[in-house]
Amino acid sequence: MRALAFAIVLAACGPSPTDTGTTCPDPEASPLTWDNFGQPFMTKYCTWCHDSSLTRSKRNGAPLYHDFETLLGVLKTPEHIDQQAGSGPDATNEFMPPDRCPSVLGGKIDTDCMQPTLEERKQLAEWIACEKIRPHEFFDAGVDAPP
Amino acid sequence: MTLRLIAIVLVLAASAPAFAQHDHAHEDTHTDAGHGSAIAAGVSLVAASFDTMLYGGNYEGIVPSVRWSNERFAAIATGAAYRMYKNGAQSYGLGDVALHGQATLVGGAHNFDAGVLAGVSAPTGDDRKGMGMGHVMVMPGVYASWMPHERLRFGTSVGYSRSFGAQGHHDHGSWPLVSPMLMAEVSWNAGGDVRVTPDVTAGARATGGLPAGEGGHARAAVAGRVGLRRGRVDSAFELQAGLVGDPFTVRGVVSTMVSF
Fold first, then answer.
1. What is the nearest CA distance from A119 to chain B, expressed in angstroms?
2. Which of B159, B157, B68 has the alpha carbon at shortest distance from B113?
3. CA-CA distances (angstroms) from residue B223 to A41, B169, B226?
4. Which chain B residues have a beta carbon less than 8 Å from that of A48?
């Protein structure tokens, strides 16, 4: 009985996705941008499964509407990215990427996932924090894209 | 005495699937062991398909349970293990363990029973896989049961369910997938059973949850069931359909419980 209670307590105390508490010191001065950090990071670690071109059965468990091949997609769920993969003063989240990944876009899981370094996770949290408060202008490419 | 026995059969048939479905819907769990106490053990098999805002797929689960009851009180403990297939990924894992209790406060007069219920679940399930809540859930409630005829029983329950120690929010569709519930909700359940033969019952019920102050969306499901009692063994099959809030598309539960 004690062992069962202990197991329950252990399970209840396991890590869970947590806000990293990272703040952006100055969104204009931060060197981290979509082009030089966000997009390469997402391409390297995330879009194997988090890509809007993937149908549900090809996503290897990734939820719909969590697609990171564009900045607009990232900014739809920035808190989730921070809580799953970011590192900051309040938490280091290593829930994503998972242990196993597909080696091709939308393929079957057949290889170990590449894992960001701790420094990359800190940069991710800072970039997300800054990108959230930067001004953006997104256009529907089919309707009102600039010439 | 005959009426009492009928009530026992109907309530047993009604309560077993409720725990098997693991939706914490404050179902009446009353059993009667005469003037003594009784222990029973059971297992339920559940299979469901779901199509929520973020996920589509199916799962199967096994839900063992142990129950103790006497004339006024009943308690049941359940665990669960699942195979889950969602958005192209398959996984296995445990579900949350739960303990439900019940005390009859009013019983006997005019074939009417009423009492209080309480449940608590512990986050032993993997909430990231959709197999557990990720936090403790406490679920007090009340129930009432009425038999207007020896072959007919109606039952209803309502309760308030609230999370403790939660760091996330169930605001991204139904979650967890195996047992959708809001962080705070009013859970309800209402249904009826007809004794078709001395051993067989048939019934239907509706169940669901309403947001109670912390956001989220209402959910509701309906179910039809058939129960069979032979000697010390009670078995039931329930087919459920989600109506509101994407709790599941369709779910089937087969359960059996042996009294000792």
1. 25
2. B157
3. 47, 28, 10
4. none
Q: Is A57 on the interface with B (CB under 8 A)?
A: yes
Closest C-alpha to A40, from A127, A142, A132 = A127
**DSSP H or E stretch at residue B223:** strand B219-230
User: pLDDT tens across A110-137, in order?
Assistant: 999 999 999 999 999 999 999 999 998 8
Q: Above 60 in pLDDT, residue B44? A: yes
Question: Total structural domains in chain B?
Answer: 1
Three-state DSSP at B210 gives strand
Q: What is the pLDDT of residues A41-78, one digit of tens each?
A: 999 999 999 999 999 999 999 999 999 999 999 999 99
3-state secondary structure of B54: coil
Structural domain including B132 reads 2-259
Quote the DSSP letter at residue A87. Answer: B
Per-state percent for chain B, helix, strand, coil, to nearest 5: 10, 60, 30
Among B87, B129, B136, B170, most A C-beta atoms within 10 A, so best to mutate, is B87
